[in-house]
Amino acid sequence: MATGQSVNERIYMVIRQVPEGKVTTYGQISKIVGTASARQVGYALAAVREGMAVPWQRVVNSQGKVSLSGSEQQRLLEAEGIEFDAQGRIDLKRFGWSGPDDAWLEANGFDVTWFWSR
Q: Mean pLDDT across the chain, nearest whole number?
């Protein structure tokens, strides 16, 4: 881990890489960061405040659902072109993010083998 970076800062770094029109899961962020549980990712997202430039809405649960109070989250995602089925789920195969590339991971001090450790 880079000197002086908190776990939350590293979580936010990864989330900032998720492109518009794609989503990721709490678990995927957890695996990429390597030192955070999925629950910690949720706590970090709960701490996001306006002006932090963290696209929090792009993180959903492993079923492709938004948070319990997710009407704003769903509205933001739909504005990015993400579609929800009748049960309120996102097709993660279609809209899921595959993660940052190895060059970005390496340049930012993350483990490039995260993808294979699932």
A: 91
